[in-house]
Amino acid sequence: MTQLQSNVRIEKDSMGPVEVPADAYYGGQTMRAVQNFPISELRFPRAFIKALGQIKLAAAQANVELGLLDQRLGDAIEQAAKEVADGKFDDQFVVDIFQTGSGTSTNMNANEVISNRAIEIMGGERGSKKPVHPNDHVNKGQSSNDVIPTAIHVSALVSMQEVLVPALEKLEKALRQKADEFMGVVKTGRTHLQDATPIRLGQEFEGYADQVKRGLVRVRQAQAELSEVALGGTAVGTGVNTHPQFAARVCAKLSAMNGVDIHETDGHFQAQSTLDNCVAASGALNTVAVSLMKIANDIRWLGSGPRAGIGEIMLPEVQPGSSIMPGKVNPVIPESLTMICAQVMGNHVTITIGGQSGNFEINVMMPVVAYNLLQSIMLLGKGVDNFVNQCVTGLTATERGPEMVERGLSICTPLAPVIGYDAAAEIAKEAARTGRTIREVALERTDLGEERLREILDPMAMTEPHA
Question: Which residue blocks in 66-195 are alpha helix, DSSP H?
């Protein structure tokens, strides 16, 4: 029994008595973790708590089906776990991210909240552990060592499916629409930040769309990595204290709840001693961030100006850009996306270090890997969606690109097969020295004539392969 003392209750665990707030749904082990880890304000996000609640719900159902848990207890646990999954008790998940490396404190946080809520449902006394015990009943057939990595995988997999994949699909579609819109706009290409042969503005945007398309392939590969879960291995991968059918039944229920494939690993010892799947998934996110950084920066540069920059496109004006310069407007939406990309790249470093921190049968940086992986997914998803809505869909082409093509020096490239590389280079040098166009100099220095030069120096023809 618990003893009430004003605004606290006294609970006992294997280490002795501990004071817990009287109205808390969490219990003694959670309270010890709160006291032991007063580090930061970082907590597991909603997606992770939802996955943890779903795992406990599915576990209760499986244990009842297998005859290992009384139906009445199972029903109460199921209702309590669903309420946790639905977000009713998010304020009761109070343990810092920087805690025990296995995430045991957070697993017990969930067990205690669900246990106490189930006790309440059955008319019992919160904190009594009767008739629903956090370890014996809520955690039945499980260990923190297989529950926490499973929760990481499920929450990341579902977040990708619900937030990131739709955002990337939306971005690819928007970029392809712009590619079609801009396909008739010829402009100067750039390599090494120097003028190169002409390219269509639409072709540049086609390149951006194809980057995103390949990013989607990588994200789906990451989802395949995350669909394999450690549940069923319990403490060290051997499956001690769990029914042979338990994990498969739970995974089937989790798959049905979320509309994604979740299956028990066929290699429990690697699944619990490593976070390789998470590192691989983060690697895909890191690559997507690199792609998005390139796209956002290109769009910023193409829209630079409006007078002294490149100015080949116009970005939507969404807010004043300066507290001192009237009328200044900045590319704030691409800037926001580049900062998100930087954060995701930094998160990948943390996840990489976390992934290599497995010792024998367990990884000991699970919480920080979970936090960073989920943050990367959510930031990319929301950042991309915002980038589409407030920037990409409103992009327009200016006349600056086409106007500069005739003055470019690299349009002399098609002359090289006709008059030779060295002769073409001399024409380019003279044009650069005198400020004249390639066409004007070539008309003087060759016998090709206006009609032939018009054919050779056609900028649009230069944007496609031809002999």
Answer: 71-85, 104-121, 144-159, 165-182
Q: In sequence order, what DSSP letters do the residues of 288-324 get, joined into one string?
A: HHHHHHHHHHHHHHHT--SSSS--SEE----S---SS
Give residue-wise pLDDT tens across range 139-161.
999 999 999 999 999 999 999 99
Half-sphere exposure of 47 (CA within 13 A, CB side): 23
* pLDDT at site 467: 66
CB atoms within 10 A of CB 147: 28
Q: Give the C-alpha separation, 159 to 223, whole Å.
A: 10
Concatenated DSSP letters for 393-443?
GG-EE-SHHHHHHTT-SGGGGGGHHHH-HHHHHHHHHHHHHH---HHHHHH
Q: Which residue has the tokens 């189930």?
A: 118
- List the domains of the chain with CATH numbers: 3-140 (1.10.275.10), 146-189+200-233+272-400 (1.20.200.10), 406-463 (1.10.40.30)
d(CA 305, CA 262): 50
Strand 362-363 to 358-359 pairing: antiparallel
Distance (Å, whole) CA 429 – CA 431? 5
Nearest to 39 by CA among 441, 371, 353: 371
pLDDT higher than 60, residue 3: no
pLDDT for residue 1 is more than 50: no
Just list the catalytic residues.
192, 322
Identity at 89, one-letter amino acid code: F
At 92 the pLDDT is 98
**Amino acid present at 258:** N
Measured CA to CA, the distance from residue 293 to residue 310 in angstroms comes to: 19
CA-to-CA dists, residue 368 to 97, 159, 278, 354, angstroms? 6, 17, 12, 7
Give the tokens for residue 256. 């049905």
| pTM exceeds 0.90 for this model | yes
pLDDT at 5 over 90: no
CB 354 within 8 A of CB 370: no
CB 51 within 8 A of CB 250: no
pLDDT tens, position by position, 84-112: 999 999 999 999 999 999 999 999 999 99
Buried b / exposed e along 361-373 (16+ C-beta atoms within 10 A) = ebbebbbbbbbbb
Per-residue pLDDT tens digits for 203-240: 999 999 999 999 999 999 999 999 999 999 999 999 99
Segment 179-199 shows an average pLDDT of 97
Distance of alpha carbon 258 from alpha carbon 51, whole angstroms:
10
As beta bridge partners, residue 421 has none
* Under 8 Å between Cβ of 368 and 356: no
Distance (Å, whole) CA 100 – CA 96: 9
Report which secondary-structure segment, H or E, holds 377: helix 366-390
